[in-house]
Amino acid sequence: MSEKIQVLNQQGKEVEQIALNPAIFSSPINRRLLDLVLVAYAGNKRRGLADTKTRREIRGGGKKPWRQKGTGNARQGSIRAPQWRGGGTVFGPQPRSYRTELPEKMKQAALISAFSQKNKESNLTILNELKLEKPKTKELAAVIKNIKKENARVLCLVENFDKKLQLASRNLRERFKIESARQVNAYDVLRRKNLVIVKEALELLEKRILGR
Predict the structure, then answer these.
(1) Residue 18 sits in which domain range?
(2) Residue at 140 is within a domain
(3) What pTM was computed for the model?
(4) What is the pLDDT of residue 2?
(5) Which residues have C-beta within 8 Å of that of residue 72, sequence separation ≥ 6?
(6) Would you say residue 52 lies in a domain?
(7) Interatomic CA distance for residues 149 and 188, integer angstroms
(8) How many domains is the chain partitioned into structurally?
(9) What is the structure's pLDDT at 210?
């Protein structure tokens, strides 16, 4: 039996109730998979540019600091050695890639689990539409306040991310991020506590995830 959820308009009033697809929003939650995917997506965002100099990259030190014996000091071969101040670093970070390639089926299963988790936690809201008369931040902020999401970090999924929404949402990205349902992934969903989906994007998500 399909679960029903209320649909709100931009004034925050209920206009209807619709059935959510249980294959997406009532699926068992694979928390182990979500953890793996979160780590993978976070790693893919890392640039991996940290770089420390090894002893071969330090300038100078070509001459032995002092003769091998007779000085009373410990023998030293180069001031580029790690024990010297300004010497090379041993086992320090080097430029590398943190990228992890995930199978498409894993990405799809993780996205379904993420949607199910938001629904189970009652952090899912459905809007009948999200259309602005003018590309004004104030107008979008009023919608956010009407649906009582002004104090939450929200991801909003739309079918068409038009120019008006792009301009109006630029100053609100930290708390109300709008993204196309064509590109969303499990990492995006899980990074925000609340999920808002515009009704027209639901069908697009179903076709994308289930291939229907």
Answers:
(1) 3-32+102-210
(2) yes
(3) 0.81
(4) 58
(5) none
(6) no
(7) 17
(8) 1
(9) 85
Write out the H or E segment, with its range, that includes residue 127: strand 124-127
- The dihedrals phi and psi of 205, each to the nearest 5 degrees, come to -65, -40
Asked, for residue 137, whether it belongs to a domain, the answer is: yes
Q: Which residue has the tokens 């009023």?
A: 142
Question: Which stretches in the chain have pLDDT values below 70?
Answer: 1-2, 212
- The side-by-side arrangement of strands in the sheet containing 154-158 is 14-20, 3-8, 124-127, 194-198, 154-158, 176-180
Phi, psi at 8, each rounded to 5°: -100, 150
Six-digit token string for 44: 């893919």
SS (H, E, C) 39-81: HHHHHHHCCCCCCCCCHHHCCCCCCCCCCCCCCCCCCCCCCCC
Among residues 131, 159, 119, 128, the alpha carbon closest in space to that of 15 is found at: 128
Beta carbons within 8 Å of 84's beta carbon, 6+ residues apart: 76
**CATH number assigned to the domain comprising residue 178:** 3.40.1370.10
User: pLDDT tens digit string along 89-148?
Assistant: 999 999 999 999 999 999 999 999 999 999 999 999 999 999 999 999 999 999 999 999
Task: With respect to residue 178, please indicate whether it lies within any of the assigned structural domains.
Answer: yes
CB 2, CB 25: distance < 8 Å: no
d(CA 76, CA 107): 54
Q: Find the helix or strand (DSSP H, E) in which 18 lies.
A: strand 14-20
First CA to last CA distance, the chain: 19
Enclosing H/E stretch for 157: strand 154-158
Number of residues assigned to the chain? 212
